[in-house]
Specification:
The structure holds 2 protein chains of 2 kinds.
Chain A: H1 2-14, H2 32-35, H3 42-54, H4 63-69, E1 73-74, H5 82-86, H6 104-129, H7 141-162, E2 165-166, E3 181-182, H8 183-203, H9 222-238, H10 244-248, H11 252-260, E4 267-272, H12 279-282, E5 291-292, H13 294-297, H14 331-335, E6 336-338, E7 357-359, E8 372-378, H15 380-393, H16 397-405, H17 408-411, H18 424-438, H19 446-452, H20 469-474
Antiparallel strand pairs in A: 1-5, 2-3, 4-8, 6-7
Helix pairs in contact in A: 3-6, 3-7, 6-7, 7-8, 7-9, 8-9, 9-11, 11-15, 15-16, 15-18, 16-18
Chain B: H1 2-13, E1 24-32, E2 43-46, E3 52-54, E4 60-65, E5 71-75, E6 82-85, E7 94-96, E8 106-107, E9 115-116, E10 125-128, H2 129-132, H3 140-144, E11 151-154, E12 165-168, E13 182-185, E14 188-190, E15 202-208, E16 225-230, E17 239-252, E18 262-263, E19 294-295, H4 302-306, E20 311-322, E21 326-337, E22 347-360, E23 363-377, H5 387-393, H6 423-429, E24 431-448, E25 453-472, E26 488-511, E27 514-537, E28 556-577, E29 581-592, E30 601-612, E31 622-636, E32 647-650, E33 653-656, E34 658-659, E35 667-680, E36 684-696, E37 699-703, E38 712-716, E39 718-735, E40 739-757, E41 762-764, E42 773-775, E43 783-786, E44 823-825, E45 831-833, E46 848-849, E47 854-855, E48 858-862, E49 867-877, E50 880-890, E51 893-896, H7 897-904, H8 925-928, E52 944-946, E53 949-961, H9 963-968, E54 977-991, E55 1011-1012, E56 1020-1029
Parallel strand pairs in B: 1-7, 13-16, 34-38, 51-55
Antiparallel strand pairs in B: 1-4, 2-3, 2-5, 5-6, 8-9, 10-15, 11-12, 13-14, 15-16, 17-20, 17-56, 18-19, 20-21, 21-22, 22-23, 23-24, 24-25, 25-26, 26-27, 27-28, 28-29, 29-30, 30-31, 31-35, 32-33, 35-36, 36-39, 37-38, 39-40, 40-49, 41-42, 43-48, 44-45, 46-47, 49-50, 50-53, 51-52, 53-54, 54-56
Helix pairs in contact in B: 5-6
The chains are: A mainly alpha, B mainly beta.
């Protein structure tokens, strides 16, 4: 009996700890319920969407690649395969495969931009469909909706401008039924989103929540946001063309209408070095890192060689700005610095990578110890140039010339005013030169988009990215890719018909 | 502090042994039946009691026993145990014979209760003190190397305090959270670094290599188990032993990386560089031939400037005592290792330990407590920056010891080369240290309820406080910031703890010829981490390395907490018939907060069996022959956050992250193990194992369409099958009185194949190598994939026009196509354009895939070796002993990414054309161009190197001064014995690998991702030690 009692005691001891509570919460990352536990939490979701869009400007995954391919900037680093794929001559095919070691060039912008669309839709759905009221009696609903439609439009616009296909997802769309749509449809979705943001800005008075964008000069109100949305709508619509033929088909009257209501001040972000960064800008001035392609130098000296000489001991020396088509442009000495030190730009790395010139404008923009400080994301001058181009393309050359003559070309460059009698092509050449010179390092792949819509990219250059192989695989679709001389003239691959390298 | 240590050391050194008188004294001598030699260290115990002693160096013993007598049991590992009735004798001389079976040891790992090896149904590896004491390893991981079959140890970095990576029977879990076996120290389940364990405290290490044997530990032990067992008492009843051991030595870099001592710049008549701008030393003019055959104006060996012979020291004091009811062990250990890098802080570790066990009637209590405090360096590795990058990049004409213009001791940038900082400046001006405070402790109480039933309770705790600090002063220089970066500061603190409570009931019963045992155990585990970090830059005040001295706008912070709760229960039943037919079964149920909420409990288990053939059949020359089979399932738990739906919080904003998975299960590893153990010719042991493992429910972070807003979801999707063959051979070749020689040989090979992959194939291995390790169905885990260049014209494919189709730029019918006669093979064995041979643009030609029009993507190597070998041997001649350990890897590759970037930076010795006949040197572009061998840093076959090696890993030459010598010297009453040793670690490496050392890898999964990428090189140590026992 005594032994039986002892055994029972032993068994009881063994189970004294039993049946532990194994439900443990993750205190580091909220789930949806905790992230959006109250209407006010939707503010954080919108802010997250803005942060997602900004993410494409840092990390070297997507942003500088096309600016290399546009022969606007150069360096000898092979991070993100700038050198291996985007700047090598002749241009190769992009290996859009599941195992391509730099697939992040595609997947990061694809993921961040689509994520931003999804977050914006979460907020729009909560307010418009589920009737959530943000702020006292829904006082902040217009601000929240304007902010959500705005960022959805920007994100979808970048997708349309960058990828061959994308999604069109409204707030009430069942994502299990979606399929890829061509970039022509995605841009319509983007512009319609911005139209809704513009309408909300025009119909309401509000100040944007200060967590959405660290804008210089304080938070944007409905008026400033409305202007910004107009500029982006026109710019994204205009930049969507992959070829000169598509560019000719752009609705330039619509672009002009947006430009007329567009921004009148520079759009400057005060980056914090963490969530808000722009690597291309903050590293742009490093003398041993980024250099300026000869294509840009030739705007000032058309006699400067298109490419650095092949001989190991050959050196093109400095350019002579007095050779400029319209005279000496004083901005050349101001914006660009001639480096005698070729640093890493050895011949073995390829003559197309070599240049003595580095960018020297806005030294406060680039810092070597962080990505913080004011970053010019979009100049008011960009809206002016967009307006000028739309005017030229809609037959109002004198009005366009008036804009150019009032701009930095004359005021800073000291060049003579243009005649209002110049041809449309002459006016466009000046406009695109101005875009190359004045809008350096601003918007996402701006110069690549400018080059492709004039067919001026080198033969075989990517004009856009395919949908990433990972996404195609998830959808069970066949993988495809672009680029390479053998594919020249086919969708996604520049024909080289008007290549700037052509004689 | 040093003074205190010395005083403590002195006090302990002068302590003396204590013995206790008994009632009746038995004396005698134990000798070897083989050759009649005296046997020291044999345990002599009064049967049925804890009363006992051990023989001295001359084999003699003296033991007090009750007047009533009883029986004495003589035992020693490797010898057959003898039991002799005392009767009325006062002198008992015994002759012990060799137990060649070596199977009499008791093991405690992987079994429900302490079990003799001969009754195990699965393989267990054991390294005992005899082998561990010869060359005390710096950590238990390195102590296993070459000593246990089926064990692979890779030290991926030479930074002292970095524990090596251990793999048992290969890697079967691709996305492993633990990355290695479960580590247990005296029953304490640990989750932190092995580097904190003082090897001088270790008595033995037991290794369960397979999932079947490890099934006792369920979801914790899919990668096997390593249990470290520390010392308990003196082993001599009534004796207190004090041991003092001091080892001093120096470190030394064994091999240098091959670098170029020539360049391609123009020189003037004085041998100086010709500059285009006399004020800018970077404006050197290139030679037209672009051949690197020009001498530098002066030469420094930068590696010899940075890597110096530095100090190594280990001081040990141990106190051990045993009495009838109590065993006590205490120790203090001081380890100092300065590595080989000038300016890098020393790795200093101090450990104290106290182990006590005490028996009171039917109660037994024990506790094992250890505390370790270490401060060690960290440094930038595997990146373009830091000292290990700079030392290979800085050109050899530059004097690293040139002072900076602002008065600092060294200059950061000597001739601008981007990230190629002066390594001496970097090492001396970056203060990057890691401090660790580690506490390990347990308390166990057991009570013998009945003759058959014992219950036991244990609580254990493993707690680690970690502090990391990175500091660069306000005037810190870099080549691109010659005026100072403004400095930066990072501090991170974290605490991680694991507490485990265990309750066990043991039941044993003997029925005539049948032994039966049952064990029931419940265990509750709780693991927590809590940490935060702060960093910032731009000091506004000099000399105040604190956050308040930084520009506030640069400050950023981060924190995280995790908690894991698990409970498990198992029932183990074991039985044998006459100890020759052995059967055991286990079932275990694990519940864990890491499993998805819908699958919180999972089942594991095993069945093992063994048959001791020689118990039924007498076979000439074979003393013991056992065959065995086991099948079991263990597992690996998911990572903490994997099951959760998460929003990422960045700067207070919420972005969708991973999509939750309520069905996330642990990876299950099922293993069938077949093996045999043979003891033969009275001096040999042999073990052979074959195992086949199937690891199902591999967990991958599967990307989701971002249209959902979620980036990915952790899912169970994949199977890896691993086959393993291993063997161990032990031989006591000579056992003469004055000469003994034993040899142990271990060998193993494994192969892991991904048989099922429920996700699209992907690359792994991190950004350093752009992820060259391909995770692909049908592939092996460790395969390297990449591009390659033509080495023969026969590799070229031509179309009907004779145009080569598998090269870049081919267009069917294109006018720029090339044909076979446009190419030749150059002097370096690569195909180049014939018209470019000997020209500055002579480039190797990349193989393309005509089907895709892209560079051919194919397997270019594997990290997995064909064979892992270890040979250890101990020879004694009179008072001399020689021990050595040689280990070897046959086959397997390392990707030399360091070499690839040195091509790019024109610094590798391959580019050096000095001595080439005039006009026959090859231009540097052949190696350095992105369109040639360097290949834009893409994974490329040229950089895959055979990692085979043979290493003389450990050597110890000792002279032992036994008790007799001490007595002759007249100090026998103070010093029991002494040992003087010369010790070498990592002494010599025989290899064709071109880098510092073929034992190099990434920090993540270092056995499967073998990449050389600017790491702290491994180094060797030479030392001498003196050990005194009192």
């Amino acid at each position: 009996m005594k032994n039986i009692l002892k055994r029972k005691l032993a068994i009881a001891l063994i189970f004294v700890f039993g049946c532990a509570d194994l439900d443990v919460e993750n205190p580091n990352n909220p789930d949806f319920a905790r992230a959006v536990s109250s209407p006010d939490d939707l503010v954080g979701v919108v802010a997250g969407a803005y942060a997602s869009v900004q993410r494409i400007f840092y990390g070297y995954q997507g942003h500088p690649n096309f600016e290399w391919a546009a022969d606007h900037i150069t360096m000898t680093n092979n991070v993100s395969h700038w050198w291996q794929i985007y700047k090598v001559e002749p241009r190769p095919q992009l290996p859009n495969s599941l195992t391509y070691v730099q697939l992040a060039n595609l997947t990061v912008p694809w993921g961040q931009l689509n994520s931003a669309v999804s977050s914006a839709n979460d907020v729009i759905r909560a307010i418009e469909i589920n009737g959530i009221q943000v702020g006292p009696n829904g006082a902040d609903n217009p601000m929240m909706l304007a902010a959500a439609y705005y960022i959805r439009g920007i994100a979808a616009g970048y997708i349309a401008n960058t990828f061959a296909e994308g999604y069109v997802i409204e707030a009430d769309t069942d994502v299990s039924t979606i399929s890829l749509r061509p970039y022509s449809e995605v841009i319509e979705f983007a512009v319609s989103s911005l139209d809704k943001a513009i309408a909300l800005c025009e119909a309401n008075s509000f100040v944007l929540n200060n967590t959405f964008m660290p804008t210089s000069g304080g938070s944007y109100d409905n008026v400033r946001l409305g202007k910004l949305a107009n500029t982006y709508a026109g710019y994204l619509l205009m930049s969507n063309a992959r070829t000169a033929a598509e560019n000719a088909a752009t609705d330039w009257n619509k672009v002009l209408a947006y430009a007329n209501k567009g921004m009148t001040e520079d759009f400057i972000l005060n980056c914090d070095g963490n969530q808000w960064q722009n690597w291309l800008q903050y590293l742009s001035g490093l003398f041993w890192y980024w250099r300026v392609d000869h294509r840009i130098i030739r705007h000032f000296d058309p006699e400067y060689p298109k490419r650095y000489p092949l001989g190991a001991a050959d050196d093109p020396g400095p350019a002579d700005a007095s050779n400029g088509t319209y005279g000496t442009d004083a901005r050349f000495a101001e914006y660009y610095f001639y480096e005698t030190n070729m640093s890493f730009f050895n011949l073995s790395r390829g003559p197309q990578l070599r240049s003595h010139y580095r960018w020297n404008r806005y030294p406060e923009m680039w810092a070597t110890n962080g990505a913080s400080g004011p970053i010019r994301q979009m100049f008011a001058y960009q809206n002016d140039l967009m307006k000028a181009e739309a005017l030229v393309r809609t037959g109002s050359i004198p009005a366009a010339v008036a804009i150019l003559n009032a701009g930095p070309r004359v005021t800073d460059g000291g060049l003579p005013a243009l005649s209002t009698a110049i041809s449309a092509n002459e006016a466009l050449d000046v406009i695109f030169a101005e875009r190359d010179i004045e809008l350096t390092y601003t918007d996402y792949n701006l110069h690549h988009k400018d080059m492709r819509r004039r067919d001026m990219l080198q033969i075989g250059t990517l004009t856009m990215h395919p949908v990433p192989a990972t996404e195609l695989s998830l959808l069970g679709l066949e993988l495809y890719t672009f680029g390479g001389v053998s594919a020249a003239g086919q969708p996604g691959s520049a024909s080289g018909a008007n290549s700037w390298l052509n004689d | 502090m040093k003074r205190f240590l010395l005083l403590t050391l002195a006090c302990i050194l002068f302590a003396s042994s204590v013995s206790f008188a008994q009632e009746r004294t038995i004396t005698g001598k134990v000798t070897s039946s083989d050759d009649g030699s005296a046997l020291p260290g044999v345990n002599v115990v009064l049967k049925g009691t804890a009363t006992g002693t051990a023989t001295d160096s001359e084999g003699r013993f003296s033991l007090s026993v009750p007047a009533s007598g009883g029986s004495l049991v003589f035992s020693f590992i490797g010898l057959q145990t003898q039991e002799i009735p005392i009767g009325d004798r006062s002198v008992i001389d015994v002759s012990l014979s060799l137990d060649a079976t070596q199977l009499s040891e008791i093991v405690v790992t992987g079994v429900a209760a302490g079990t003799s090896v001969k009754k195990l149904g699965f393989s267990i590896g054991k390294v005992d003190e005899a082998m561990l004491k010869e060359v005390p390893a710096t950590d238990p991981g390195n102590a296993l190397r070459g000593k246990v079959s089926g064990v692979q140890v890779v030290q991926p970095s030479g930074i002292p305090g970095t524990a090596p990576v251990i793999r048992l029977r290969g890697s079967s879990v691709i996305n492993s959270t633990s990355g290695g076996p479960l580590i247990i120290v005296d029953g304490i389940i640990t989750a932190n670094s092995l580097a904190d364990i003082n090897m001088n405290d270790v008595e033995s290490i037991e290794v369960i290599k397979g999932a079947a044997g490890a099934a006792l530990y369920g979801s914790q032990a899919g990668n096997g188990v390593v249990q470290i067992i520390t010392k308990k008492g003196s082993g001599e009843i009534g004796v207190t032993r004090v041991t003092a051991r001091n080892e001093f030595g120096f470190t030394n870099l064994q091999r240098e990386f091959p670098l170029s001592n020539s360049h391609f710049y123009q020189l003037d008549a004085n041998g100086d560089f010709i500059l285009s701008d006399q004020n800018d030393p970077t404006t050197r003019l290139e030679d037209a031939d672009a051949v690197m055959d020009n001498p530098y104006p002066r030469l420094f060996n930068q590696q010899q400037e940075l890597f110096l012979n530095r100090f190594f020291m280990n001081n040990v004091v141990q106190l051990a005592a045993s009495s009838k009811n109590t065993n006590f062990y205490a120790s203090f250990d001081n380890l100092q290792n300065e590595s080989v890098v000038e300016g890098l802080p020393s790795y200093d570790r101090k450990t104290v330990r106290a182990n006590v066990d005490h028996t009171i009637n039917k109660f037994k209590f024990s506790t094992n407590l250890s505390y370790s405090k270490s401060t060690g360096p960290d440094a930038t590795e595997r990146a373009q920056g830091g000292a290990f990058y700079g030392v290979l990049l800085v050109e050899p004409d530059l004097d690293l010891r040139t002072p900076a213009n602002d008065g600092q001791k060294y200059s950061a940038g000597l001739r601008f080369n981007g990230n190629g900082t002066n390594p001496l400046y970097e090492a001396n001006n970056t203060n990057w240290v890691i401090e660790r405070d580690r506490f390990l402790g347990n308390f166990t109480a057991s009570y013998q309820l009945t003759n058959d039933l014992r219950i036991e309770g244990q609580y254990s705790l493993d707690q680690l406080f970690r502090y990391e600090r990175f500091f660069q002063p306000v005037d810190f220089l870099t080549p691109s910031n010659p005026d100072g970066t403004g400095g930066s500061l990072f501090m991170g603190r974290s605490v991680s703890s694991g507490s485990v409570a265990t309750a066990t009931a043991y039941y044993t019963k003997k029925f005539t010829d049948v032994n039966f045992g049952a064990t029931l155990r419940y265990q509750l585990e709780n693991y927590k981490t809590d940490g935060y970090s702060l960093n910032g830059s731009q000091f506004v005040v000099k000399g105040v390395p604190q956050f308040q001295a930084l520009d506030r706008t640069t400050l950023s912070s981060n924190s995280s907490q995790t908690e894991i709760i698990s409970e498990n229960i198992f029932l183990n039943l074991s039985g044998d018939y006459k100890e020759k037919y052995i059967l055991e079964a286990l079932i275990r149920r694990d519940g864990s907060s890491l499993f998805g909420e819908d699958v919180r409990y999972q089942t594991f288990g095993r069945v093992t069996s063994a048959y001791r053939i020689t118990e039924d059949f007498k076979i000439n020359g074979i003393q013991e022959w056992k065959i065995r089979a086991s099948y079991g399932i263990s597992g690996e738990r998911p990572g903490f956050s994997w099951q959760y739906e998460t929003f990422n919080l960045v700067g207070g904003t919420a972005q969708k992250g991973t999509f939750g998975n309520a069905d996330l299960r642990p990876t299950k590893i099922a293993e069938l193990e077949l093996g045999t153990n043979i003891g033969f010719l009275n001096r040999f042991t042999f073990e052979f194992n074959y195992s086949r493992t199937e690891a199902t429910d591999q967990i991958f972070n599967v990307p989701l369409s971002p249209a959902t807003g979620w980036s990915s979801q952790f899912r169970n999707a994949g199977t890896v099958e691993t086959t393993n063959i291993e063997m161990a051979l032990g031989a006591d070749i000579f056992t003469k009185p004055d000469f003994t020689w034993n040899v142990n040989v271990v060998a193993s090979r494994y192969k892991s194949v991904i048989t099922e992959l429920g996700v699209p194939e992907f690359n792994a291995g991190g950004s350093t190598t752009a992820g060259m390790f391909r995770i692909k169905q049908g592939g092996e885990f460790g395969d390297m994939w990449g591009q390659q260049h033509f080495t023969s014209l026969s590799q070229m494919i031509t179309d009907e026009n004779g145009d080569v189709t598998n090269i870049a730029g081919y267009v069917l019918g294109g006018g720029s196509n090339l044909q076979l006669d446009d190419f030749v093979v150059n002097q370096h064995g690569y195909v180049v354009r014939a018209d470019r041979l000997g020209q500055p643009n002579e480039n190797a030609v990349l193989v393309y895939d005509p089907a895709t029009g892209q560079a051919l993507d194919s397997k270019i190597g594997t990290s997995i070796p064909d064979l892992i070998l270890g040979v250890s041997s101990t020879m004694t001649y009179k008072n001399f002993s020689l021990y050595f350990l040689v280990d070897s890897q046959i086959g397997g590759d390392v990707y030399n990414a360091t070499k690839q970037l040195l091509y790019f930076n024109e610094r590798h010795a391959d580019l050096d054309q000095a001595g080439a006949p005039t006009g026959e040197g090859t231009a540097y572009n052949f190696w350095a161009s992105a369109t040639s061998l360097y290949n834009g840093n893409n994974p490329t076959k040229h950089f895959v190197e055979d990692a085979s090696y043979v290493k003389i890993r450990e050597i110890n030459i000792s002279y032992n001064l036994g008790r007799g010598v001490m007595e002759k010297l007249g100090i026998g009453n103070v010093i029991h014995d002494a040992r003087i040793s010369l010790i070498g670690r990592n002494l010599f490496t025989f290899t064709n690998y071109s880098g510092y050392d073929p034992e190099v890898a990434l920090g993540v999964n270092s056995t499967n991702y073998r990449v050389d990428s600017f790491t702290h090189p491994l180094f060797r140590t030479f030392s001498a030690s003196l050990q005194l026992r009192f």
